[in-house]
Design goal:
Layout lengths: L8 H9 L1 H20 L3 H20 L6 H20 L3 H21 L3 H13 L19
Helix pairs in contact: 2-3, 3-4, 4-5, 4-6, 5-6
Amino acid sequence: MSKLRFLCPTHRGWLDANPEAAHALWQSSRQRSLELLEEQDFTAAARHAGAAYEAAGILLSQDAAPAAPEIGRFTDATALLGELLLIVGEREAARLVNAAAISRMEQLLVSGVHRRLVLACCERLLGSPAGITPQPQPVPVSTSLH
């Protein structure tokens, strides 16, 4: 699960051109991910959550000023994917997905889109386990200069 792309470039391109299909993929992938989570098939659930996350990202990118539901879908998809990545032991991938989502939210803040909602989404993502920045590890100090 070390790759952060869940859809092939061809599929992504097709979804970019077909927002209705992107919405249907988001919905079906999210639902299947939740079913697999309940069945405790965490790896498969994470794959489906990844597809939902990418579809939500495509929908978010369709408009310079996306509607509130698109922002909410993207945040929900990010939170679900982050949780599942943590469950399957992919902590760094979870952190990267969360950081990328927060960066997208920052872009929306700068553009002034749904400021309160975007701030609430940022707070949610920052408060998630995937949003926690890893503590710096101490660097071993060598006693020799060579």
